[in-house]
Amino acid sequence: EPVREYAEGEPSPPKLEGKLQTMGNALKVNWIKQDDG
Fold it and tell me: How far apart are CA 17 and CA 6, in angstroms?
């Protein structure tokens, strides 16, 4: 039971947030590079 709760509630939201943050950082880097160039 506890494992199921952990698997359902915890890993999913952090994974999504991490992905979004990584994508945002990559986009920011690309924009900055374009501005400098």
Answer: 17
- Domain residues for the domain of 26 are 2-36
Helix (H, G, I), strand (E, B) or coil at 1: coil
Number of structural domains the chain divides into: 1
Q: How far apart are CA 22 and CA 2, in angstroms?
A: 30
pLDDT digits 0-9 by tens, 1-37: 555 555 555 555 566 666 777 777 877 777 777 776 5
Output the pLDDT for position 23.
Answer: 76
Burial 23-34 (b: 16+ CB within 10 A, else e): eeeeeeeeeeee
pTM of the model: 0.32
